[in-house]
Amino acid sequence: MICFLLNDQPVRLNQVPPHLSVLQYLRGHAVLTGTKEGCAAGDCGACTVVIGELEEGRLRYQAINACITPVGSLHGKQLLTVEHLARDGRLHPLQQSMVDSHASQCGFCTPGVVMSLFGWWHAAKTGQGGADRHSLEAALSGNLCRCTGYQGIVLAALDAAKRMKAERA
Ligand code: FES
Ligand code: FES
């Protein structure tokens, strides 16, 4: 049996095929289709989700490619998808900043981009990572965007991080 949290809901799965990917599970079984399939080979980042797990007593979030991650590896962890970010009808600050900065055109890459940003944001917020441009570019290095380009995305994320730090000061 595989047990994990899907966003904030506990999930128990019996008899999981060893080849079932997290992406196949999300889109085909959980019907959470915000996570996109592009290359299905770990190269484009369209399927990016965030995995939460405890490390030395601290919750650590890490962005991963759902298309090359087996569901069996989720046991004891939290799987966060793009559907989790908006709360009470309000976009997450990163999502709002993407809108304000016109950082999306066709939108196909956007859920994956936002989830990579969310992993970076959480690390910065919890003191496990930086909120600087260098760490941001590293966090986005697996996400391809074919139509908008990256400048708007980078500016959106840096702006959201700046506001987050100002609110905490
Ligand atoms: S669909 Fe391209 S990395 Fe997963
Ligand atoms: S917004 Fe079209 S691929 Fe990024």
List the helices and strands and how they pair.
Elements: E1 2-6, E2 9-13, H1 22-29, E3 48-55, E4 58-65, E5 78-80, H2 93-100, H3 110-125, H4 133-139, H5 151-168
Parallel strand pairs: 1-5
Antiparallel strand pairs: 1-2, 3-4, 3-5
In angstroms, what separates the terminal alpha carbons?
Answer: 44 Å
User: Could you list the spans in which at least 5 consecutive residues all have pLDDT below 50?
Assistant: none
Helix content: 25-40%
Residue share in β-strands: 15-25%
Supply the helix-strand structural class: alpha+beta
Order of helices and strands: EEHEEEHHHH
The strands making up the biggest β-sheet line up spatially as 2-1-5-3-4
- Overall form: globular
Average pLDDT rating: 95
The unique ligands bound to this protein are: FE2/S2 (inorganic) cluster
Total strand segments: 5
Q: Helix count, per DSSP?
A: 5
What is the rounded Rg?
Answer: 16 Å
| Main beta-sheet annotation | 5 strands, mixed
What features would you highlight for this structure?
169 residues; five-stranded mixed beta sheet; alpha+beta; globular; 5 strands; single chain; binds FE2/S2 (inorganic) cluster; 5 helices
